[in-house]
Amino acid sequence: MRLLVTTGLAASALALGAAPAAAAAEIEIIPATAAPGDSITLRASCEGPAERLEFTSQAFQGVPSADLVDAEGAVPVVVAPGTPPGVYSVLGECVGGTAAETREGEFTVVRGPLTPTPLGAPQTGGGGAEPGLRPPLLAAAGAGLLALGGAAAAASGLTRRAR
Description:
Elements: H1 2-24, E1 28-30, E2 33-34, E3 39-45, E4 52-56, E5 65-67, E6 72-78, E7 86-95, E8 102-109, H2 135-162
Parallel strand pairs: 2-8
Antiparallel strand pairs: 1-3, 3-6, 4-5, 4-7, 7-8
């Protein structure tokens, strides 16, 4: 029983230790969904000695690169106009050092802009008083007129009863 528990704990520790290494080999792409013409940011790091990261993908033109600062680099990239919708992979290569490291990531290209296009008339509010008039003052004046009208009606009814 002790051997089984010890083996389980060792396997768990090994799995936890391997998880960060797998995550470090990925490219962070912000945002993960973009339209043609939109800008995305590619961010990754290199473990070995390198000077910069070079990124390639069918979704953008050229080979953008990021100089490494403390082994990390980031660069904004524009999704090429006319890129068809779909999932695109991005490959990052650590260059300028002795290590031959690669990073991978992917993002989704959608059709059209991601910002909503307004339809119909502009939403300007629910109406109200003119800008120069104060709504609480108008409400108080209206309540006063109603009270005055009620008092006049009551007085008129008393005058009729008295006859």
